[in-house]
Specification:
Structural class: alpha+beta
Distance between the termini: 50 Å
Helix content: 25-40%
Number of helices: 4
Shape: globular
Strand content: 25-35%
Radius of gyration: 16 Å
Length: 181
């Protein structure tokens, strides 16, 4: 599957990636940005044809990939001839590290899943990261500061950056900062 995802990363074609064995009708639709032997970085698109940031998942979680078909045709109509996907410059050899660094540099919100929990275990700003640990300034769903979290980098199973949910929390966090000043 990794080699097939690499092929579609190069072509820039939109794909549907299935990653939830508990719900085999659910998928992520988007363009694959980068793939290595462990991670796949996807530029997901919502059901409404709107860009949803950057999503990083474990390759081993992908059990099916679809290309083309009725859904793809519908999405192309919704997105138009030139889809407005955000463009991110990440290192295809160090996907997780470069996404965390990007989030830190741009002071953007990330949502992180730990050990395939199925939920966003941490939402916040990347304070520091290296190949062993990642430190976050955690925020709650209202964008208010909620402490500091440190995790083993190897515990990460998914990262969402600059998606619709993260942008909402980012706007709230910015308003909270303004109210405090």
């Amino acid at each position: 599957m990794v080699e097939m995802m690499k092929k579609y990363a190069e072509s820039g074609e939109f794909v549907a990636l299935y990653t939830d064995l508990g719900n085999t009708t659910s998928f992520i639709y988007g363009r694959i940005l980068a793939v290595d032997d462990t991670w796949v970085a996807i530029l997901p698109v919502t059901q409404d044809g709107v860009s949803d940031g950057l999503l990083v998942k474990l390759c081993e979680d992908v059990f099916r990939m679809d290309v083309g078909g009725e859904y793809a045709e519908k999405m192309q109509r919704l997105m138009g001839s030139n889809p407005a996907l955000e463009d991110y410059s990440i290192d295809a050899e160090k996907i997780v590290e470069s996404v965390l660094q990007l989030a830190k540099t741009e002071h953007g919100i990330v949502s992180v899943e730990i050990e395939d929990s199925g939920i966003d275990d941490i939402t916040g700003f990347v304070r520091d990261s290296n190949d062993k640990t990642v430190t976050f300034d955690v925020v709650d769903s209202y964008g208010a500061p909620d402490g500091i979290a440190m995790i083993k980098a190897s515990a990460i199973s998914q990262i969402e950056y600059n998606g619709i949910a993260e942008k909402r929390v980012q706007r709230l966090a910015a308003q909270n900062e303004t109210m405090l000043n």
